[in-house]
Amino acid sequence: MKALQDSAVAIVGLGLMGGSLALALREQNVCRKIIGVTRNPRTRAEALARGVVDAASADLGLVAEADVVVLATPVRTILSQLPQVGAVARAGTVVMDFGSTKRDIVAAMQSLPPHIEPIGAHPMCGKETSGFESSEASLYRDAVFVLTPLGRTSPQTLALAESLAAALGAHPIVLDAARHDRIVAAVSHLPFALSAALTATADELARADDQVNSLAASGFRDTSRLAASDVTMMLDILMTNRENVTDLLRACGHHLDELANLIAAGEEPALRLRLERAAESRRGWFK
How far apart are CA 190 and CA 250, in angstroms? Predict the structure, then answer.
């Protein structure tokens, strides 16, 4: 297996995550060659013109030229691409993904040919905007970079993945795929679902009162921001982490019902205690 600096890295998908990866690799000059694979001809042309990639194609077969392949597409697209990559990648190629859920992807990676070196990954960063035009070299800087190795993942593959994360300025940690999916359901997928529900609730009122939009300020902007996330990406996430997200939505619904009951009953002391506990917990999370 080649070291990262001697490797050709193929990035499949040049949206926010893949484009930012290409920009960061180029800026840090940490690999031998950058290959971009995307169906968008405008993105291919721009990435080549700006020198972000050395080669670009819509053909997934181009990954046969790579030492490291990173799948930076939506989760269910990754699942469909893995067999195609496995069919053309040469022996010793490291295949990594950037999917936001890991159990289904890691299970699919088990079926890759034995000469392929697979490892799951999920950089914990992003924006509510998508596409190559939203990408930035600093996206991964200071982010937690989760790695979910398989039983067949070699120590050399894990070390290369850690070196990639470090080259991006991220902080690699190793987690079991199932544990990863439980955690991100709470801290990433549930917040999106709540943001979507909040926006839908306010929108219902806005259809009856034309002053709602004019009064929406920073609080609503901050709490509704995630509702503007790429819908295809989020559908893939919710559908491949259904059990965890459903359980947490129902648990959160219980908390919302309790708050509504306390407010309706005018139970101010109990409501104060509940809100103070939440405020203390939130301050402890982000000191």
Answer: 10
DSSP string for 226-262: GGGS-HHHHHHHHHTSHHHHHHHHHHHHHHHHHHHHH
In angstroms, the CA 173 to CA 210 distance is 48
The answer to whether residue 2 scores a pLDDT higher than 80 is yes
The model scores a pTM over 0.90: yes
Specify burial of residue 283 (Cβ count, 10 A radius: 0-12, 13-18, 19+): exposed
Taking only the tens place, the pLDDT of each residue in 148-160 is 999 999 999 999 9
**pLDDT band with cut points at 50, 70 and 90 for residue 130:** confident
Label residue 17 exposed, middle or buried (CB < 10 Å: 0-12, 13-18, 19+).
Answer: buried
- C-alpha pair distances (Å), 95 with each of 61, 83, 128, 182: 14, 11, 27, 24
Instruction: Report the C-alpha gap between 168 and 70 in whole angstroms.
Output: 14
Average pLDDT score over the chain: 96
User: pLDDT > 90: what percent of the chain?
Assistant: 95
Domains of the chain: 4-175 (3.40.50.720), 180-285 (1.10.3660.10)
46's tokens? 């721009």
Specify the residue for token string 């199932």.
178
Which residue has tokens 């295949």? 95
